Structure formats: C-alpha cells, structure tokens
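Note to self: keep these together.
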Amino acid sequence: MYKTIFSVLFIGVLLFVGIFYFKYSQSSQKELEVSKISSNILLYTESGEVTFKTLGSNTFQVASSSPTIIPNQTIVHTKIGKASVLLPDNSTISLDVNTEITVNYSTTKTSIYQTLGTTYHRVQALITGDTYQVQTPGTLAAVRGTQFAVKYDTKTKKTKIAVTENSVQVSTIPLGSEITGTTTPPVETITLSEGKTVIVDKVEKVPEKGESAMQILDTTKDDDMRVWVEKNKKEDIQLENIKQSTKDSDTLRSEIKRVIYDDIKYTKKGWVNRNRILFNGKDKIYTLSLKKD
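Structure:
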C-alpha cells in the first residue's frame, strides 16, 4: 500500500516538474524572441530614395522596404530622400535630405559619425556609464538622454548643434578624427543648454588664451536650425505622449512604430507592416507584408 502511495506521489512530482519546465522553457523562449526582435537597427524611408552600405563595402544599396533591418556599423545616405533610424534602445535619428551617417551601436555606447547634412536625435535616458555621442569632422557632442539637432557643412567645414531638451556637451577635436572607441582629447569643451545653438569652426590648432572656435546663439536666430528643430519638435510631442502612456521598452517600441512610422499593427500572426496610400482622395491603409523587428 505504502509503495503504491509513494509511486503516485513520485509520478505527481514528476508531472509537476515537467509542467513547470515546459512553461518556463516557453517563457524563456518568448523572452529570447523578444530580445532578438528588439536588438535590430531599423531604417525607415520617409521619402525619396535612401541608400545604405556596411563598412568596407564599395556599393550602396537602396532601402527597398520600410523598415529595412540594417547591420551595425552601417553607413546611411539620403541624397534625394529623408529617413529615420530606430535603435534597439528606442532612441531615434531623423535624417534630412543629402545627409550621411555611420551607425555604431552597442548596449553601453552609441557612436554616430556624421559626415554630411542634418540630423535630429532623440536619445532615451541612459543607464549610468552608458554614452551616446555624435561626431562630425572636428566636433563631438556627448549626451546622456536628450534631444538635439546636428548639421555639418562640407564646404565651410562648420558644425551646428541645437539643443531642444536638457543639455549637450560639445567639444572641438582634432580635424579628421574618427570614432575609434577611445576618447579623443578635446581642444575645447562647453555645455550647451536647451534653446541654444552653437556654431563650431574647424579647429586646426589649439586656440590661444581667450580665443574660441565656438559661437553660441539662440536657436530662433539661426534660420537653418530653427526650421529643422520646429519640424522635429512636433514629433517630439507625439513621442512624449507615447512615453507617458507606456510602461516598458517593448510596448514603447511598438507604439513608436505604430504611431510615428505608421507601419505596423500587431496581430496573432505577428507584426504586420502597414503602408498608407491615397485612393480616391481618401487615406487608406493596406497590409503589405509581415515583418519582424
């Protein structure tokens, strides 16, 4: 009799362990899938033609789908188009026409190398020790979580940086420096506050005492940056509303894609790519394809 009771208890324990393991494995698998999904860098074509290539490649290819999953250390170019990049941590970068950046992302450090044109950065609040920096030839902007615009003119070799939220640390660095993962010794550093724009001249030598390569002014007094900032601040309001209504990064990411890029809808089959078309004067939505982030 005791053997029978013991056998029943033993089988019950085995069943309990088996069920627990099965559920745990499913849960872990789902977490793994979410982790894989949210680790992608997404390139959105907003208008015109947008191209990209990986470092070391000689040929640009057209971003034929929106979004396009791009590998890390990819060069994005918008000669006759506009685009946005959504990073795995939900930070976003808007690229104006005739702009080129190189994206170098890791979980602790994001480095954007901008060689041409105009960008707008919305950086998620970073964990202590993490960094987000944008470098142009001769200038480095470092932040912890803010919104700001960057413009680099290849003709004048000047960089403009406009801050729309919090502050940005701006440094002049030796001309021709590239992001290598190490800290480039700055020549001059300032903290640029919200509502201000700094115009940075190219630096070919260490300035004399009292000299500066930086000119600070109100963003409203610089037409170039004012127009670009005002355009992007409208989207900032949308993003802020999304942040206030979401509790976790996965939900935030899906809402950014749904509201800002208007390209996805979640169904039981997964993420469905959505595109808007104008049909008989009315805005229609149609399903284009299934895509995973």
